[in-house]
Specification:
Radius of gyration: 18 Å
Number of strands: 17
Strand order of the largest sheet: 12-11-10-9-13-14-17
Distance between the termini: 31 Å
Strand content: 25-35%
CATH topology of the largest domain: Rossmann fold
Amino acid sequence: MYQIIAKRVCAPEVIEYVIYAPVIASSAAPGQFVMLRVDENGERVPFTICDFDRLKGSVTILVQTVGVSTYKLSLKNAGDDILDLAGPFGEATDLKNYSRILLVAGGIGVAVIYPQAKVLNSKDCKFDVILGVRNSQMLVYSNEIKILSDYLYITSDDGSVGIKGFVTDKIGELLNANQSHYDLVFAVGPPPMMRAVCEITKRFNIKTIVSLNSIMLDGTGMCGCCRVTIGGQVKYSCVHGPEFDGHLVDWNEVIFRSKRFNALEKEHYCKLRGL
């Protein structure tokens, strides 16, 4: 059992959980994730480690309530236990070879770039951040990232916060103004967003890393659920990733596989909530 130390609602249907897991916290690093199971009847679900505290023995995850497992988790409160938490899985982020970085996050993708921003800031690295959200209510960690980064740009679909538009609008503006300004773009968010980012950066010949949140079952590479095609080769997000060269990703495959169980998940989610 793993106890929830703290629970905070950050946005509608978006909840931050701080969980006591000292073994995981002792070796966690930005870019890695955990596999969580709420109860004995639950499925194993991957969540990015968006923060960790080695002294307190805690790891933090940011969860959007979109399906059965995340709904069950949303019913838990501080002091409650979850059945299983395993990790850390995946390769840690390595950004040390780049001098000027642009971090781009769409929606809950901010959970991935937040720990990266903390590390880059601690090493006095130069980096800017673009956060893209549907509306002002969905903005998470913006105050923390504003303090850490050189510049923070915010875009929203409806114009309720920051610039009205998409992250790709701001990326295009920045690169057109000074295409040699960045030597790396790191993007995470919905697959169509990441693909659009890669299409822009490829035109400017800027190295682009993406974080793929593929469907997973065991997190160890044995089930094959999270397979992706990178540069014509089969890789597994859980052991080879979750970060890859965005210009080598087969985006059609990634998008197709990400939607494969949407209808089934929606059906079970509705039944669980009595809708």
